[in-house]
Amino acid sequence: MSRAWAFLLAAMVMYIPANVLPVMHTAMLAQHADSTIIGGLLEFWKAGSYGIAVLIFTASIAVPCGKFLTLTFLLVSTQRKASGAMKERARLYRLLELVGYWSMLDVLVVGWGSALAGFGALSDAQPRIGILFFGLVVILTMLASISFDPRLMWDSRNQ
Amino acid sequence: MSNSFQQPPEVPEASITKLRWNIPIVWLVPAIAVLIGASMLVSGWFSEGPVITIGFKTAAGLIEGKTQVKYKDVTVGTVSSVELTDDGSSVIAKVELARSARSLATADTRYWVVRPRLGAGGVSGIDTLLSGAYIAADKGPSPEPRTSFIGLETPPTIINGTPGSTFVLHADDLGSLDVNSPVYYRRIQVGRIASYQLDGDGQGVTLQVFVDAPYDRFVTGETRFWNASGVDISLNAAGLKVNTQSLATVVAGGIAFSTPRSGANPPHARPAKFGLAKDQQAAFEPPSGPALHMVLRFQQSLRGLAVGALVYFSGVEIGRVTSIDLDYDQSSHRFPTVVGIDVFPLKMGSVLQKLKAQGNTDDQTGRFLGDLVQHGLRAQARSGSILTGQLYISMDFVPNAPKVAFDPKVQPLSLPTVSGGFDQLEDQMTSILGKINKMPLQQIGNHLDSSLSDLDKTLKQVDGTVLPQTTSALQQAKKMFGQTQSVLSDDAPLQQSLTQTLDEVRGAAQSLHTLTDLLGRHPESLIRGLPHEKAAAPQDESK
Question: Which end of chain A has less Cβ packing within 10 Å, N or C?
Fold first, then answer.
């Protein structure tokens, strides 16, 4: 229980530098730019690539935030030994587990970008420290959801 | 050791450690996360430098959040916002500087936008073609903090801290020079023009020239600068000579300097301002120095004298005509011409050294000049070219010049004049022409005409009478010669008879000879007659 809390808190803390610090450094024809997650998202949105923008939003903002909220809700409700909506909460937990590793999408994008855009002086992309924090966020939320024992939810009913 | 483990008091202590370990180790993870986050926050807080504003005329190339500020090609900040000023006359870029670059927020720092620039002198900022413009910074020496700056519209030529020296040149006009035009020393580019501006009174241009470090020591007090723009073509007996510093100066202009060998002045004796001569030749002329203004009054017309005409002293150019005005003399109803001249005593060169003892003040100069006038120094307007009628002013000693009054106190000094050489020549020509004009040419012509007709008549007479007589006389002479010849020829009877006669004369001579012989031998025979041959013989033998 406290393990889950610890991981969740750590993930939440890590989420701040993950968003503030740049995740990727791109160089296109000597035009250098550091982009953060939200900066890149806005750029795609402004450029008209709504699909990609929505995808990034989902993967890097909606999913982690959803996970935080969900986990917090589950943990709080379990600690308070709430007995309502047990089924829904169990379903939510399974969804959480399922979505978990898909949030690594951002890290994957940066990885692909760095690998594919390396054309020397013409264009270059390099990961920046932000993506490390983002990866840590994903890992920590996964650890938190793993360390959360769903059976504890049902303990309240037994008592 | 094992004994100590079994000591009973250890048990409660163990329960205390158990209590301490109540906090699960997993809580280290968020603690570390918080630590990392806090350290990032703190380092971010500390790495945040000052925020400055830079004013520019336009925001061309400036992008919020993108455009970088670079100092020595290191990115030290980013433009966070670009906004118009309240009156809309310029734009203000807000720049977040890095903490390491906080020394750039000082009073003397200059900021300018680096854009691609294409000039005759070269191309700069080519990298910004692809990367976009950036703001470059150049730190000044002042430590005084400042956060509001006015950006330069053109990049500064001299980056602070570049080793070298700046020199101030003064020129009459800019010519084809521009900022960044090269400066050459022995055809090596050693610097460039940093800036130029018109003088306050509009009478010239002041240029700031930067000469890079190892070369600036070649600039001494004796150094002469000249405008090396364009091509200098000279054609003389040695052939065609094209002189230029480099191809770039032909297009973009440039300055060259050189120091005469005699100049041993140390660099610290440099003057505050150098002159920029039109060309190399002008640069090495002796410096003209301060001008001495003089006024000349000419009685005769000075057609052909122009402002700028040269003034010579003993054949050395020492000044120029600065003004030509007409004056009116009421007493004589004449219109004398008043010519103002500027004389540069320094142009007299080494002579001046000898004259230095006379002193330099106006008063002394006036007295000295008065002395010269006493000895016949006069100004003349002379003709430089008979074809164009251009005049120049010549100051020379005129022998037997009439004495004139000279006041050394009057400023400007008024030098007495005499009518010039060409004028004298003109006068003489005029008088000669007058004399010619006075000659009775008509009468002379008539006389000549009649004389010629008389001659003609005489010749006709000669032709008519004298010639036939001459012909007959000649014929007679010819006949006579023919006769003479016939007489003298070998077969002529005269010749024959002459030969005969001569033969006879010879015979006579022979017999005379015989006679004389006989008489020589027998002189008595003259009396006795010829002796007998026989009797005579023994007589001869006895003798």
Answer: C
